[in-house]
Amino acid sequence: MIEEGQGESNRVNYAYTLTRSKVGCGSYTCRVHRTFLESPSKELWTKEFNIGGHLWQLKLINTSDGNLSAYLYSRSKSSVGVHACFTVVNHADSKSSNSLGYFHRFSLGSYWGYAKLAHIAKIKDQQIGFLKRDVFTVKLDLRLKLAQNESFVVSADSRSATCIWKIKDLYGASPPIIDSEGFKIGDLKWRLGIWPHGERTRQRDMTIHVYNDNNERIDTEITLTLIDNLQPEKNITRDTMTRMQKLGSWHYLNFINSKLPNDEMARFLKNDWITLTARIAIKDQPKELDKASAMDLIQAVHSKEENLKCLLCNGKAAIAGVLHGNTTHKCYCMGCARSLKNQNKCTGFAKLLKKRCNLNCPICGEKVERIVEHML
Asked: Of 145, 171, 217, 328, most Cβ neighbours within 10 A?
């Protein structure tokens, strides 16, 4: 069902297109005249609209610091969990559009959004592609979390969590970004995220994120599995060991080709449901060291003591290490170094040009550029 109309807010004209698709899913596309961009502190409120049986309202703000803010307000009495994604549409190149999304549980009068969805100066720049005939477009994609279209189950303790995430019509009726509900491992907060059609400019395949919503770095072992309903032995599994940065994320690009032939894609669908499992395990965390202690540790790692042990397995001799900038730190045995190299794609400078190593130095925490198997 498609509904179109026009409106006016604070002397700014806008037009909208409301599209309702599958149960609990829809989009609201708001086209705003560029005069809105010329007035800092200007606000625009749309008319209320209905998606999934709930009333919503969109608010846009041209902030005094030069950003476009966007917020979604709930006008219904009942509470509901929603996957929402805001997009400032680039008409010249859709993959250069600005998209931000999140999962939020709404109640009457509550709101959620982004204070810095896009820079006003970039939207106004005719060469970039956000303006089309003096109009810019903000698209809001919504997917309500209902029993009919999603299930997210978590089993967790103080050291690990296993998540089973089932989603119906992932490719047919979903925002470009879908985040799971938050969950805890002990006192630590985590989320999962799926970009069904990828997040990079030239990427078209699914990307999966694991989000560390904590203000600390955490050594983590991650295993992601996409379930093959016909032949479980052909499940797609990806795993890694990584140090998650503060309030950061780890992601796996090209997890599955979104344009697989229908018969191949059908293996992962059961009545249009797709199932992803994720296991996140917290490794023993290194103690925070002051600068003097860190230097002592670095000197010990570089020493020629024969009993220097691998910092990962703490069993074999450390004869390999990592390179970052002009510094190398000896910290791994040969077996652990090769395992980390394969898991984190630290396979040399040629491949670094295509994909960065997803690993941090266990000594100083710097981003690793390369794993060195043989160190003097």
From this structure: 145
pLDDT at 8: 93
Contact criterion met (CB below 8 Å) for 206 and 255:
yes
Q: How many CA atoms lie within 13 Å of 103's alpha carbon, on the beta-carbon side?
A: 20
CATH topology classification for 291-372: Herpes Virus-1 (3.30.40)
Residue for token pair 């042990």: 309
Structure tokens at 178: 């879908």
* Identity at 252, one-letter amino acid code: Y
Contact between residue 63 and residue 115 where contact means Cβ atoms under 8 Å apart: yes
pLDDT at 262: 62
CB atoms within 10 A of CB 218: 19
Tell me the per-residue pLDDT of 177-200, one tens digit each, with 9 for 90 and over.
889 999 999 999 999 999 887 765
| Cβ partners under 8 Å of residue 346, min gap 6 | 340, 352, 357, 359, 368, 369, 370, 371
CATH of domain 2-144: 2.60.210.10
* Neighbour-count burial of 376, counting CB atoms closer than 10 A to its CB (0-12 exposed, 13-18 middle, 19+ buried): exposed
Question: What is the spatial distance between Cα 292 and Cα 86, in angstroms, rounded to a whole number?
Answer: 47
Phi, psi of 74, rounded to the nearest 5 degrees: -90, 130
Residue ranges in the chain whose pLDDT is less than 50: 201, 289, 301, 304-305, 348-355
DSSP state at residue 351:
H
- Look up residue 364 and give its two tokens: 């100083």
Q: Which helix (H) or strand (E) holds 66?
A: none
Over residues 18-65, the pLDDT tens digits come to 998 777 899 999 999 999 999 888 999 999 999 999 999 999 999 999
Its CATH architecture, for the domain 150-282, is: Sandwich (2.60)
pLDDT at 300: 54
